[in-house]
What does this fold into?
Amino acid sequence: MKITIISIIGLIIIGLVSYTVAQMGHGMMRGGQMMEGMHDHSPVQYNPDFYSEDMRISRGGQLYDNWWKTTTTTVKPVDNHPLWSQQNVNKRTGYSTYRCKECHGWDYKGKDGAYAKGSHYTGFSGVYEASQKKSVQELEGALKGSTNKEHDFSRYLSKEDISDLALFLKKGLINTDRYLDKKGNPIGGDVNSGAYLFNTNCAHMCHGGPGTMINFGKPDKPEFVGTIANKNPWELIHKVRSGQPGTKMISAIIDKWSDKDILDIAAYTRTLPKDLIEAKKFEGHMMSGEMGHHQSGIDTRGFGPFTK
Ligand code: HEC
It folds into this structure.
């Protein structure tokens, strides 16, 4: 009798344990997928199958901007990029020297574009021409060191990251000369249409009407949307199109904005306050809490709406 009861209890325990193990396995499977990974707050492996081509191009653009922030699993290099010592004008060190944009520019023209002078000059060439001529496979090759072994990013980036970058280079690059003149002034662009686009897409909850709700700079030396639009309109256009790494910012590539939309937003954002003095004039229009460091928008990692 005793033996039977013990065996029944034993069977129940075995049953419970195997059920729990099965559930855990199920949870892990689902945890491996993009949407479910949200809940457990562990780093999520990026799976390109969940994304449309435009989303992957936008992600490639964010990787080009700041690959460490766009991913959740990469390791941030602390040394200088192996090619960095080929120049000595640009004095940046560490991870900055690994960002594609630092060597190839926000306008993709490297030494022949906006980085032809100033503290960002490196003398390195652009990627625009090469991306027109080369295939996606060849561009992936260049990122794995096929043209120069010191240009091998596969030590850091996954093959999915490299393939999204190559897709962005092949299909996502624009000739910025069609949008901005050499000084960065938008070529055309309708301020009123730009205001409509800004207020309906960018102002609400995030940048605020005057574009001062998120400060990308320091409290005493702020950088607002208007600051970037005036100081570095190539960067503005890149970020409007690709989105901002590590945030939920929208992407004009994914949202299929037209060339005219990009020009209109570039023209309008130049009218927004660039510094604290100009921002003061807009004070009446600002909600409380504006001008602060908008934590939910910055200092996170990952791509798109799935960002934690
Ligand atoms: C430290 C500076 C530096 C960084 C950072 C850098 N590159 Fe390069 N890149 C170069 C140099 C220099 C070359 C030319 C190398 C060679 O001899 O082929 C090059 C070449 C290329 C080429 C091939 C161009 C051609 O003419 O064949 C592509 C594409 C490219 N880079 C894309 C990228 C992307 C995307 C990133 C970011 C993941 C990146 N690069 C980061 C310096 C850099």
In short: The longest helix spans residues 2-31.
